[in-house]
What does this fold into?
Amino acid sequence: MMPLLDMCMTKLYFLGGEDVQERDSKEINEKAFMEAGGTPVVLIFNWTAESADKMGKYRKIMVDYFEDIGASAVEFAECSDSLEEIAQKTKRSDLIYLPGGVTRILLERILDAKVDSLLREYDKIIVGNSAGALALGRDCILTRGKRNKRTVIIPGLGLVDFSVKVHYKASKDRELKQLSYARKIYAIPERCALIYDSGSVSGIGDIYLFQNGEKTRQ
It folds into this structure.
Protein backbone atom coordinates (compact mmCIF):
# COMPACT_ATOMS: atom_id res chain seq x y z
CA MET A 1 0.00 0.00 0.00
CA MET A 2 1.28 3.46 -0.85
CA PRO A 3 2.51 5.45 2.21
CA LEU A 4 -0.02 8.04 3.30
CA LEU A 5 2.30 10.96 2.66
CA ASP A 6 2.64 10.03 -1.01
CA MET A 7 -1.02 10.94 -1.42
CA CYS A 8 -0.66 14.51 -0.13
CA MET A 9 1.76 17.41 -0.35
CA THR A 10 3.53 17.09 3.00
CA LYS A 11 7.27 17.75 2.99
CA LEU A 12 9.32 16.36 5.89
CA TYR A 13 12.66 17.63 7.15
CA PHE A 14 14.65 15.14 9.23
CA LEU A 15 17.40 17.04 11.08
CA GLY A 16 20.29 14.94 12.34
CA GLY A 17 20.62 17.16 15.37
CA GLU A 18 20.70 20.90 16.01
CA ASP A 19 21.67 22.87 19.09
CA VAL A 20 18.88 25.46 18.97
CA GLN A 21 20.78 27.71 21.36
CA GLU A 22 23.70 27.81 18.92
CA ARG A 23 21.38 27.86 15.87
CA ASP A 24 23.83 25.59 14.08
CA SER A 25 21.29 24.40 11.48
CA LYS A 26 19.91 27.86 10.76
CA GLU A 27 20.23 27.55 6.98
CA ILE A 28 18.23 24.30 6.99
CA ASN A 29 15.42 25.86 9.00
CA GLU A 30 15.46 28.95 6.80
CA LYS A 31 14.97 26.71 3.75
CA ALA A 32 12.03 24.97 5.43
CA PHE A 33 10.52 28.34 6.39
CA MET A 34 10.82 29.60 2.80
CA GLU A 35 9.03 26.51 1.53
CA ALA A 36 6.32 27.15 4.13
CA GLY A 37 5.68 30.62 2.70
CA GLY A 38 8.62 32.63 4.05
CA THR A 39 6.78 33.99 7.09
CA PRO A 40 5.09 30.86 8.44
CA VAL A 41 2.93 30.35 11.48
CA VAL A 42 4.97 27.72 13.35
CA LEU A 43 3.38 25.18 15.69
CA ILE A 44 5.79 23.50 18.13
CA PHE A 45 5.06 20.23 19.93
CA ASN A 46 7.38 20.90 22.86
CA TRP A 47 6.67 17.48 24.36
CA THR A 48 10.12 15.89 24.61
CA ALA A 49 11.07 16.39 28.27
CA GLU A 50 9.62 15.15 31.57
CA SER A 51 10.41 18.40 33.35
CA ALA A 52 8.16 21.40 32.77
CA ASP A 53 11.13 23.59 33.71
CA LYS A 54 13.24 22.13 30.93
CA MET A 55 10.45 22.57 28.39
CA GLY A 56 9.99 26.14 29.58
CA LYS A 57 13.69 26.90 29.18
CA TYR A 58 13.67 26.00 25.50
CA ARG A 59 10.33 27.66 24.84
CA LYS A 60 11.73 31.20 24.72
CA ILE A 61 14.86 30.04 22.88
CA MET A 62 12.78 28.55 20.08
CA VAL A 63 10.39 31.53 19.89
CA ASP A 64 13.29 34.00 19.56
CA TYR A 65 15.07 31.78 17.03
CA PHE A 66 12.10 31.17 14.78
CA GLU A 67 10.89 34.77 14.86
CA ASP A 68 14.41 35.90 13.93
CA ILE A 69 14.40 33.71 10.80
CA GLY A 70 10.98 34.82 9.65
CA ALA A 71 8.12 33.21 11.55
CA SER A 72 5.10 35.50 11.69
CA ALA A 73 3.91 33.69 14.82
CA VAL A 74 5.07 30.81 17.02
CA GLU A 75 2.46 28.73 18.82
CA PHE A 76 2.74 25.72 21.09
CA ALA A 77 0.61 22.61 21.29
CA GLU A 78 0.19 22.35 25.06
CA CYS A 79 -0.04 19.00 26.84
CA SER A 80 -3.18 20.37 28.50
CA ASP A 81 -4.86 21.25 25.18
CA SER A 82 -7.86 19.24 24.01
CA LEU A 83 -7.65 17.38 20.70
CA GLU A 84 -9.98 19.99 19.20
CA GLU A 85 -7.72 22.84 20.37
CA ILE A 86 -4.65 21.15 18.90
CA ALA A 87 -6.55 20.49 15.65
CA GLN A 88 -7.37 24.20 15.38
CA LYS A 89 -3.73 25.19 15.99
CA THR A 90 -2.61 22.65 13.42
CA LYS A 91 -5.08 23.98 10.87
CA ARG A 92 -3.86 27.56 11.11
CA SER A 93 -0.16 26.65 11.08
CA ASP A 94 2.12 26.54 8.04
CA LEU A 95 4.88 24.46 9.61
CA ILE A 96 4.99 21.97 12.48
CA TYR A 97 8.19 21.58 14.48
CA LEU A 98 9.03 18.52 16.60
CA PRO A 99 12.08 19.33 18.76
CA GLY A 100 14.91 17.26 20.17
CA GLY A 101 14.75 15.58 23.55
CA VAL A 102 13.53 12.16 24.65
CA THR A 103 11.90 10.23 21.81
CA ARG A 104 9.85 7.91 24.05
CA ILE A 105 8.26 10.84 25.86
CA LEU A 106 7.38 12.59 22.60
CA LEU A 107 5.77 9.48 21.14
CA GLU A 108 3.85 8.67 24.31
CA ARG A 109 2.40 12.17 24.48
CA ILE A 110 1.50 12.24 20.79
CA LEU A 111 -0.28 8.88 21.05
CA ASP A 112 -1.94 9.64 24.39
CA ALA A 113 -3.29 12.92 22.98
CA LYS A 114 -4.41 11.08 19.82
CA VAL A 115 -2.78 13.70 17.59
CA ASP A 116 -0.85 11.18 15.47
CA SER A 117 -3.69 11.29 12.91
CA LEU A 118 -3.35 15.09 12.71
CA LEU A 119 0.32 14.72 11.81
CA ARG A 120 -0.43 12.07 9.20
CA GLU A 121 -3.10 14.27 7.61
CA TYR A 122 -1.01 17.46 7.70
CA ASP A 123 -0.30 18.70 4.15
CA LYS A 124 2.34 21.38 4.69
CA ILE A 125 5.86 21.24 6.22
CA ILE A 126 6.96 19.16 9.22
CA VAL A 127 10.44 19.61 10.67
CA GLY A 128 11.74 17.00 13.10
CA ASN A 129 14.97 17.68 14.98
CA SER A 130 16.76 14.67 16.54
CA ALA A 131 14.04 13.01 18.67
CA GLY A 132 11.44 14.70 16.49
CA ALA A 133 13.03 13.22 13.37
CA LEU A 134 13.19 9.74 14.90
CA ALA A 135 9.49 9.87 15.81
CA LEU A 136 8.41 10.45 12.20
CA GLY A 137 9.90 7.22 10.86
CA ARG A 138 8.82 3.61 10.70
CA ASP A 139 10.96 2.58 13.69
CA CYS A 140 12.85 4.70 16.20
CA ILE A 141 16.40 3.36 16.45
CA LEU A 142 17.85 4.32 19.82
CA THR A 143 21.44 3.10 19.69
CA ARG A 144 23.72 2.52 22.67
CA GLY A 145 24.92 5.74 24.24
CA LYS A 146 24.48 8.04 27.21
CA ARG A 147 20.74 7.42 27.46
CA ASN A 148 20.63 3.77 26.40
CA LYS A 149 22.75 0.91 27.73
CA ARG A 150 21.69 -1.17 24.74
CA THR A 151 20.12 -0.53 21.37
CA VAL A 152 16.35 -0.21 21.57
CA ILE A 153 13.93 -0.15 18.64
CA ILE A 154 10.41 1.14 19.20
CA PRO A 155 7.63 1.83 16.67
CA GLY A 156 7.57 5.34 15.25
CA LEU A 157 4.62 7.23 13.83
CA GLY A 158 5.21 5.66 10.42
CA LEU A 159 4.78 8.79 8.31
CA VAL A 160 7.41 7.25 6.01
CA ASP A 161 8.43 3.66 5.32
CA PHE A 162 12.04 4.08 6.47
CA SER A 163 13.88 4.84 9.70
CA VAL A 164 16.57 7.39 10.49
CA LYS A 165 19.66 7.42 12.66
CA VAL A 166 20.28 10.91 14.03
CA HIS A 167 23.55 12.25 15.46
CA TYR A 168 25.19 9.76 13.09
CA LYS A 169 28.88 8.88 13.43
CA ALA A 170 30.80 6.26 11.47
CA SER A 171 31.48 4.34 14.69
CA LYS A 172 27.86 3.10 14.45
CA ASP A 173 28.31 1.57 10.97
CA ARG A 174 28.62 -2.06 12.05
CA GLU A 175 25.48 -1.90 14.15
CA LEU A 176 23.52 -0.03 11.48
CA LYS A 177 24.49 -2.55 8.82
CA GLN A 178 23.12 -5.36 11.00
CA LEU A 179 19.90 -3.46 11.68
CA SER A 180 19.46 -2.62 7.99
CA TYR A 181 18.61 -6.20 7.02
CA ALA A 182 15.14 -5.63 8.52
CA ARG A 183 14.64 -1.98 7.54
CA LYS A 184 15.91 0.90 5.40
CA ILE A 185 17.88 3.40 7.50
CA TYR A 186 19.04 6.89 6.54
CA ALA A 187 21.94 8.05 8.72
CA ILE A 188 22.02 11.81 9.29
CA PRO A 189 24.94 13.57 11.01
CA GLU A 190 24.40 16.67 13.13
CA ARG A 191 23.87 19.88 11.16
CA CYS A 192 22.63 17.84 8.18
CA ALA A 193 19.11 17.01 7.00
CA LEU A 194 17.18 14.51 4.93
CA ILE A 195 14.22 15.96 3.04
CA TYR A 196 11.28 13.75 2.06
CA ASP A 197 8.93 15.09 -0.61
CA SER A 198 6.16 12.98 -2.16
CA GLY A 199 8.16 9.76 -2.09
CA SER A 200 11.53 11.19 -3.12
CA VAL A 201 14.41 12.02 -0.81
CA SER A 202 17.21 14.58 -1.00
CA GLY A 203 19.82 15.71 1.46
CA ILE A 204 21.56 18.73 2.90
CA GLY A 205 25.07 17.71 3.90
CA ASP A 206 26.32 14.13 4.11
CA ILE A 207 23.53 11.54 4.17
CA TYR A 208 24.09 7.77 4.15
CA LEU A 209 21.74 4.90 3.36
CA PHE A 210 22.00 1.56 5.17
CA GLN A 211 20.09 -1.23 3.46
CA ASN A 212 20.56 -5.01 3.26
CA GLY A 213 23.79 -4.79 5.21
CA GLU A 214 25.35 -2.20 2.88
CA LYS A 215 26.21 1.49 3.35
CA THR A 216 26.01 3.98 0.46
CA ARG A 217 26.42 7.74 0.37
CA GLN A 218 23.40 9.59 -0.98
